[in-house]
Fold this protein.
Amino acid sequence: MKHGKYPLLAAFLLPALGLYGVFVLAPYAQAFLIAMTDASGLSNRYKFVGLDNFVALFKDEYFRNALWHNALLLVLLPAITILLGLFLASLLNVGGTSKRAVSGLRGSGFYKIIYFVPQVLSVAVIGVLWKEIYNPRSGILNSGLRAVGLDSFAGDNLGNPDMAFWLVLAVMVWANVGFYVVLFGAAMSSIPRDIYEAAALDGTSRWTTLFRITLPLVWDTVQVAWVYLAVIALDGFAIVQIMTRGGPNFSTDVAGQRMYDTAFTDSRFGMASAMGVVLFFFTLSVTLVALRLTKRERIELA
Amino acid sequence: MKFKLHNPFSQGFLVIWGLMTALPLLWVIASAFKDDNEILSDPWGLPGALRFGNFARAWTHASIGEYFLNSVIVLSVSLTLTMFLGATAAYALARYDFWGNRFIYYLFVGGMMFPVFLALVPLFLVVRQLGLLNSLPGLMLVYTAYSLPFTVFFLSAFFRTLPTQVAEAAMIDGAGPFRLFFRVMLPMAKPGLISVGIFNLLGQWNQYIIPVVLVSSDEDKYTLAQGLAALAISEGYRGDYSRLFAGLTLAMLPVLIVYAVFQRQVQSGLTAGQLK
């Protein structure tokens, strides 16, 4: 392998590295530089302003409001999605009892196929779809509520500042749960069946089984899920952009939407880059904290 | 035996979530056949007739066909480029020892941790400097660049697991390093290539943020996801709901068909990324 190693390395690595360098690494590096200027999108002239953008940013109540929504998402999205995912996956994988062995429910393959569907849809499709479902006039949410006599709940939905955030959160949960049902299901299927049989003989309840047996044994996967959902929660830009653009009255605003508007509506590129840098460090620290907090002794199944 | 008592209860929860997932999609497809009056007056009702004209109007008047074609053109290049550059780089990193190997590997893999929107502003500036704003080639290159981290990560893990004996045998038979890669290693890596290919296919097809920023001011260059979102906004004013639902159905259909056919590979391809 020694002979002719470098021509291959050059031919195989340089094109990929070049493209990656220009469109991924360089923008990330430049973000830090642009963040310290007053660059605008309209002219090429700018001056160095040091950390002024960051100081202004932390005084900016709109940005703080947006970050607050990201923080809420950061707690709620992983918690709800993982709990629902674990619950459904445990029903599918350790729900049924056939003869003696504890097995998955009948038709569990079919459920998994259905649950996974939102994962293959574009965020644009999901956003537009739910916007129409929430449509006060023609959506199925309000007409469904009226049909069962809950007329008082059929309101403005995304037009109502008190409701909009929760409705967007619900969509994010809807879009992600199925994926984690499949992911947790794969982890659960590697748990030896005799553990469950022993628990069943001891008369352990479903909840105790889930929290005392299943959860510790799939903890690794839960940890990974938490990190990925945290990154999704800190983003949230695409779904918000499509469904509400941060409104009404900034009630669904997220940092990504603020950054987008600052850059491409207000043409304040320096400030928008500073927002990107702040979010970069948020994402980095949240990832590290999530990994640290969820760290546990790994249980080996020999 | 205790669990058996809970079965109707568990089955109930599973059915409820199944309906929560499936009903919205079925509703969109049903609404695509309705006329505006049916959509507004009876959201839960079935269409009175199968109005295929809605689809024709969405395809031509609402430019869904044009957006669709743009997405296909972009992906046909970006997906090929992603797979080629990703596989070659992954192979070099997985199979060759050289100075800086680990550094380059982590440079690529580190990109997986950060979503694209963090570098959106400078990315816009870089693409503008290169004169690639509002162009499909610009999208092709950017899609490829942002697909490389996962592709390199996944495929280098895959190349590492391939047996060395086959490679050695081919070398003894006189195959050069390039021939070895294209004729021996690449065919052996086919299962890995298919998984990561499906992952990238769906990821790039569904990409929304990148085109919204890079192709914002030329509607003729919109991709499908982007065009659909734009359509949803304009239909809100115009009130042509049936056309919007038909467009939504047309946008969902290709991925749903891919998913229905390659269901197993799609699930394993998309979950593999998170388990490693």
Notes: Residues 59-293 of chain A form a domain with the MetI-like fold fold (CATH 1.10.3720.10). Strands of chain A lie at 96-98, 101-103.
